[in-house]
Design goal:
Helix 2 (27-36) crosses helix 3 (52-60) and helix 4 (84-90) crosses helix 5. It is globular and about 50 Å long. It has 201 residues and is α/β, with parallel strands linked by helices. Helix content is 33%, strand content 17%. Strands 3-2-4-1-5-6 form a six-stranded mixed sheet. It is built from seven helices and six strands.
Length: 201
């Protein structure tokens, strides 16, 4: 059995502006992450997506987290660095296709289906790894923690619960919330996202 806690990163300007961009958490976001560090669940290993936002959040949380390329954000292709409003004004048909068709990638990057497949493969590989044991005690559930972008959390939930891919767009993931997946016997169970305690400004 494995328990995987997915932590959404602290906020920054790109998140506030719905911009397809990467930057470290802003000062307020870093303070909130540092204040939330004591509320992190116990874990055997920590991972972080390679984005500056996730790596900065992991550092503010005090984590010694392994940078994991498989947990990277959705590749937005030529839309990278632009806001959803900007792209929507210039290419409304492309945005409509992207939001309605999980197999569409009008930006030239990664499709939603490809994201779900990639994150699902990482999750399932963790479920199949042997759990740690502390002799003479029996093996226990491996406890993993990963700081990942909101899109990765949503993709993980779509895969783990066998949801239709369009459900991705109906899942909200707030900054500095934790979502826990427990996997064994070929299935996943969900503990819905909750704010990390003590994440005061």
């Amino acid at each position: 059995m494995v328990r995987i806690t997915l932590v959404a990163p602290a906020v920054n300007a790109a998140l506030r502006q719905v911009r397809f961009d990467d930057a470290p958490p802003d000062a307020a976001g870093s303070r909130r992450a540092a204040a939330a560090a004591a509320a992190l669940p116990h874990h055997d290993m920590a991972f972080t997506a390679p984005s500056e936002r996730c790596r900065g959040t992991a550092a503010a949380l005090g984590l010694d987290a392994a940078v994991t390329p498989e947990l990277r954000d959705l590749d937005m292709g030529r839309w990278r660095g632009r806001s959803l409003d900007e792209v929507g004004q210039e290419a409304p048909e492309e945005v409509a296709a992207w939001l309605s068709d999980p197999a569409a990638a009008p930006h030239g990057g990664e499709t939603l289906l490809e994201l779900v497949e990639r994150i699902g493969a990482w999750l399932d590989a963790r479920r199949e790894e042997p759990a740690p044991a502390t002799p003479p005690a029996p093996a226990r559930a491996a406890r993993l923690l990963a700081v990942v972008e909101p899109a990765v959390v949503r993709a993980a939930l779509v895969h783990a619960l066998g949801l239709p891919a369009p459900t991705f767009w109906r899942l909200d993931v707030a900054p500095l919330t934790a979502t826990e997946l427990s996997g064994r016997a070929g299935r996943w169970n969900l503990r819905c996202g909750h704010p990390l305690a003590d994440s005061a400004p």
